[in-house]
Amino acid sequence: MRMLAVFRTPRRLNRSFAVSFLLFALLAIFGAFMALPLIYAVSNAFKPLDELFIFPPRFLVNNPTLDNFFDLFALMGNSWVPLSRYFANTLFITIAGTAGHILLASAAAYPLAKYRFWGSGTLFSIVILSLMFSGHVTAIPNYMVMSWLGWINTHASIIVPSLAFPLGLFLMKQFMEQIPDALLEAAKIDGANEYRIYWSIVMPNVKPAWLTLMILQFPALWGSDGGNFIYSENLKTLHYALGQISAGGIARAGVGAAVALLLMIVPIALFIITQSSVMQTMATSGMKE
Amino acid sequence: MQAEVNRHAASSLIQAKKPSRLAYVARELRKNKHYYLLMSPYMLIFFTFTVIPVVISLALSFFYFNMLEFPRFVGWQNYARLFLGDDVFMIALKNTFMFAVVTGPVSYIACFLFAWIINELSPKVRAAMTLVFYAPSISGNVFFIWLIVFSGDSYGYLNGFLMKFGFILEPIQWLSNEKYILAIIIIIQLWLSLGTSFLAFIAGLQTIDRTLIEAGAVDGIKNRWQELWFITLPSMRPQLMFGAVMQITGSLAVADISVALAGFPSVNYAGHTIVTHLMDFGTIRFEMGYASAIATVLFCMMIGANKLTQKLLRKVGE
């Protein structure tokens, strides 16, 4: 087992080589199953048109080209609403939604993590319960609430609900419980009020949790197509615009592949950067019985 | 008799000292007003867009409501129609169960198994493998890549390869053939499903106390399977709970993939799920009461599945 550098060097107890080999073979096979479609998406984006429609189809690209990306920008430059508009919309939704979520979720998580007071247990149970159902359950009443608020066809209809995802509060609360009470006591003795403690003691200490909330929230908003709430063309998102291009069929196949790459590369890059923080937060993600 | 009187006196004393519940709440609210203030923005939004909609949905399921007329109370009629008179719902229910029974446990076990193997790798390789397994679930909607793989003409990758090697002579219409739709959606759902819970498992495994494992070896744990059952799994029970909640919710709410791959509605409802049924009545036929009844059934299924799983997980390592 030690001859392969990928294995961890310290000696582990109770290991047989045959089973290890079998398990790692399993990992390799399923790793390939997970990775191949993504590799294919990348290689597709660089294929010239004749390679995209070759028979039998070829997995990797032979003569990589950037034409698909140039075509994409040329195409979007000619369209009625410029690409930059969709991009700005998506960027606005993503940044406002993610930053707001981190701020509100951590503000709510701090009292729940550190203090017991009337209603705190009940409120947290409701949040836990709401982890257990998907947004589809509330899709219809949500639309009604939106229309009562007059938020149909505004970016608020996407941003505001996303500020209160239950998963963010849950992870933030679990992570904050690790902050030593002595630290908060010391701050209190030094005369800091609760808001001060939250802002200058708790928040800097939960940076890994921020980054985790970011990596969970970002892909959801980055990939949002406006759902049922946004109808104006100039308010729509990048994902929607690119979906329209992909719907162009064979003539747009190359551009569609470039689009797919653009959509997937951003969240993946973000995850690579934040990976270690995410792991740190997830280590506290236990649900107590 | 004396004791009786004393008890009366004592209890009236306690009564006098014990403030009424309302006063207690008011005092608590005053004392902790900073905490309530900190929580208020989140809770306001959370209640407006999550809790109240669920309550509305529960209530609406007893009404006939088409968004134009005033809701009309119909009692259990929506549920009766759902379970007794709706063949398509039965198909949706069956398909959803198929999804849940296959993708739920399989992806849950896969999440754990891969996390467990990955945990034995050196840190750099571990990071790379984590990325490989997690990437599909955050790469947005790239599952349309699978549309190209399962495309019905000879340019589809699966058809292309099968034809090249002579397994088939003519391309198969993968996504418009009832026989294949459900299986294909299940495969792609599995591909996407190693998400948050997978990360939680990897992280949970790394926090297990090494000395526990060494102590176990001294106490007679012979192989890695015993180590897994008696030490690893019980140590990360909280993460297992969390993962179960995430996986169950995900596998019961499959819809987007079905719609993207098999269309809406799919051929002969082969890829129809409870959520697509809900979308059908909610956004196309505008029968909000009926759609709410569907949502309520789904909601109960999710809660029930979660309670059951938590009960099962408590037995781990015993």
Automatic annotation (TrEMBL), chain A:
Domain ABC transmembrane type-1, first and last residues per copy: 87-274
Membrane topology: Multi-pass membrane protein
Subcellular location: Cell membrane
Keywords: Cell membrane, Membrane, Transmembrane, Transmembrane helix, Transport
Entry's Gene Ontology cellular component terms: plasma membrane
A UniProt-annotated Pfam family: BPD_transp_1
Keyword Acetylation belongs to the record: no
Source domain of life: Bacteria
Record-annotated membrane-spanning stretches: 86-110, 117-136, 148-171, 250-273
Family matches, as InterPro entries: MetI-like (IPR000515), MetI-like_sf (IPR035906)
GO biological process: transmembrane transport
The family this protein is said to belong to: Belongs to the binding-protein-dependent transport system permease family.
Protein name listed in UniProt: Binding-protein-dependent transport systems inner membrane component
Source organism of the structure: Paenibacillus mucilaginosus 3016
UniProtKB/TrEMBL annotation, chain B:
PROSITE patterns: ABC_TM1
Membrane topology: Multi-pass membrane protein
Location relative to the cell: Cell membrane
Keyword Transmembrane tagged: yes
Biological processes, Gene Ontology terms: transmembrane transport
InterPro entries: ABC_transporter_permease, MetI-like, MetI-like_sf
Entry annotated with the keyword Amino-acid biosynthesis: no
All copies of domain ABC transmembrane type-1, residue ranges: 93-309
GO cellular component: plasma membrane
Listed PANTHER family: ABC TRANSPORTER PERMEASE PROTEIN (PTHR30193), INNER MEMBRANE ABC TRANSPORTER PERMEASE PROTEIN YCJO (PTHR30193:SF37)
Family named by the database record: Belongs to the binding-protein-dependent transport system permease family.
Protein name: Binding-protein-dependent transport systems inner membrane component
Species assigned in the record: Paenibacillus mucilaginosus 3016
Taxonomic lineage of the native organism: Bacteria, Bacillati, Bacillota, Bacilli, Bacillales
